[in-house]
Amino acid sequence: MTDSEIKAFKNELRNYRFYQKQVDELKGQEDMIYHILGGYKSPDPSKIPGGYNPNMVMQKADLSDKLVVISRRRERFQERIDQLNEVLDQLNPEIRQHMTDIYIGGKPYIQVADSIPIAVSGLYKRINVALRKVPYVMPK
User: How far is residue 81's CA from residue 72's CA, in Å, rounded to a whole number?
Assistant: First the structure.
């Protein structure tokens, strides 16, 4: 990786928890739509049994369209998470843990450096050297 790619990767890694949260929320929305489309509703006593309800057909079509949009969005966030994990998996487990603590967990460099023990600049350099050795493809 080049220096600019390392910066971009670190910024993208800071968004990791956001991506996970979005995937979880969109999965919940998908489940709700599947639940509605599955017909798990109590019958409406005001409707004539066996009658045709064109509003329900339109509602199901709208929900199906919404489901496609939600699933595409969820897949995009999941692809980003997978790309970040792919790069992290190529790193030394110790460096990967430090990067996870700093960029995903939000711990300050000083706290992580004190736990090793190493100087902050040394930790920063270790992370950058490890990332330079990894091939990285920018997410789309």
Answer: 14
**Number of folded domains that form the chain:** 1
Q: What is the pLDDT of residues 6-36, one digit of tens each?
A: 998 999 999 999 999 999 999 999 888 888 7
Which residue's structure tokens are 């929320």?
A: 25
pTM of the model: 0.77
Q: Which class for 9: exposed (0-12), middle (13-18), buried (19 or more C-beta within 10 A)?
A: buried
Angle at CA of residue 127, ends 124 and 129, nearest 5°:
105
CA distances from 65 to 55, 72, 100, 109, 120 (A): 15, 11, 37, 45, 50
Q: Is residue 140 part of a domain?
A: no
